[in-house]
Amino acid sequence: MISLVVLAAVARLVGTAAATQSDPLPLPPMGFNNWARFMTNINESIFVDAAEAMSKNGLLAAGYNRINLDDAWSTKERAANGEMVWDPVKFPNGLPWLTAHLKSKGFIPGIYTDAGNVSCGGYPGALHHEEIDHETFTSWSFEYLKIDGCNMPDHSEATYHEVYGRWHEILSGADHPMILSDSAPAYFSGEIAGTNNMTDWYTVMGWASAYGQLARHSADILVYPDGIYGGGSSWVSMLYNYGQEVRLARYQRPGYFNDPDFLNVDHPSYTLDEGKSHFALWCSFSAPLIISANIPALSQEEIDYLTNKDLLAVNQDRLVQQATLVSSGQTWDVLTKSLENGDRLLTILNKGSSTGDLTVSWESIGLSSKALRRANYVSAKNLWTGEQVKVSVKDGGITAKAIPSHGTAVFRIAKSISPVTPTGIIFNTNTTNCLTDNKSGHVTFAQCDGSDAQTWRVRPHGNINSLLRPDECIVDAQGAILSRHSGCRTDAWTYELSGNLINNNSKLCLTEGANGAATATSCGYELNEQVVGLPVGVTVVGITV
Ligand code: GLA
């Protein structure tokens, strides 16, 4: 446990480090998985056909080089010697043949198991068979393992930790370690755990992000309608997972990716704009891009956006930052992050029901006001159209025009306006209320509304000001949070992997009190009222529990 925490701490202290070759998975994985499209109707042809189509339609060339089997590939019983057995009807040529075939076509094969007694779909789980199953999967030449978390002996965090810890030991001790995609956190996220207490979720995220290269953190994205499942709106499902992802940005770092689940792009309830938004958001997050769709039947429009080189470059950027929210309101969400070459990403999501324009100010993107004063223009590329735009600094910001309902605009802003200051909402990840400044200097938590009173700059020394009151910084005034001019000298804050924002003087934690009060109180352990999200780029210090 101790070494785990140290590992996480070291990784986070170099917050702006780029991925390196020594990371087992330096960049987010890209590829195909059958689950959200075919569920338990898994079989050999799905993978053979997907591989063939991906080779021809440009997906493989664009980087989608993983093919992952999900649940229900095995028989319902193990062999007499305890080994897992592939279903000979579904996989007539066998799994070693399939992995060899996929590799010969340039793909890396992955497989699924469940850490518990029985998989989510009712097939044998790996509990107490970890060693033998690892040997089997290795001998079949799989290089990536998704470990689900259904049907564990009990639902305690300690049990999950113990069982996944066993897997971590086996995998990290192996000669050719497999990539571990770990679903444990999903079983502690609110909607599944059925509790409003997020502490266990964050605890599991802490170790899961150190054990695996990616972790499924919340609900399943809506599966394809098969008459039983998959009805309803995939837009709602996608936005739900997006909303969970933004709560967890502090965990992502080179070598570990938060996984908001598959790109279920051919779900028939999506409009084209919605599918494109799904993709653009996952790219902005540097999230895994695992398509779960009927690949041979994808339309040219779908292939075109899935292979958009500029968006894929954002996803595969070596800083692998997860874009965070600059602002969030009824209609618009605005996100930013930095890219390795110093460029800044701007992603604007229209959640509303009609087409609209939005201007995002230079300050809220985090651009340097000094550099802005020296420049005449800001250059940016519209990543959907490829158009280069030159915007006069005097315009005050960048305007995205005619963003359709449920569409997303994405700009890559050239680095000349650097250095950037991490800028965005500070929000309670339980209530999702935003820290809100006020002309009077009385700071509260309130529903996010997209205003400048809720967009905060985290300055290099840890002083924090809102865009509403750029010359005043938040202070802990004997337990009350105020914004004051003197605060920009006296009150610096430290952000921890636990999600606590700690005042360096009082050592107290920012807390959402009753009725939206913003207070500073003694720091507890990952408490609902004290875990906050901050803009990406702020150094995250490891927890020491
Ligand atoms: C869970 C997972 C899904 C899929 C199914 C398989 O629901 O979250 O991604 O693996 O199990 O049964």
TrEMBL record:
PROSITE patterns hit by this protein: RICIN_B_LECTIN
Domain Ricin B lectin: 423-517
Compartment list: Secreted
GO molecular function: alpha-galactosidase activity; carbohydrate binding
GO annotation terms (biological process): carbohydrate metabolic process
Coiled coil, from the record: none
Pfam families with a match to the protein in the record: Melibiase_2, Melibiase_C, Ricin_B_lectin
Keywords: Disulfide bond, Glycoprotein, Glycosidase, Hydrolase, Lectin, Secreted, Signal
Residues in Alpha galactosidase C-terminal domain copies: 330-413
GO CC annotation terms, alphabetical: extracellular region
Top-tier EC class: hydrolase
E.C. numbers: 3.2.1.22
Highest taxon in the source lineage: Eukaryota
Signal peptide: 1-19
Reactions accelerated catalytically: Hydrolysis of terminal, non-reducing alpha-D-galactose residues in alpha-D-galactosides, including galactose oligosaccharides, galactomannans and galactolipids
Presence of the UniProt keyword Cell inner membrane in the record: no
InterPro entries tied to this protein: Aldolase_TIM, GH, Glyco_hydro_27, Glyco_hydro_b, Melibiase_C, Ricin_B-like_lectins, Ricin_B_lectin
Keyword Secreted attributed: yes
Entry-linked SUPFAM superfamilies: (Trans)glycosidases, Glycosyl hydrolase domain, Ricin B-like lectins
Chain's role: Hydrolyzes a variety of simple alpha-D-galactoside as well as more complex molecules such as oligosaccharides and polysaccharides.
Similarity field: Belongs to the glycosyl hydrolase 27 family.
The protein's name in its UniProt record: Alpha-galactosidase
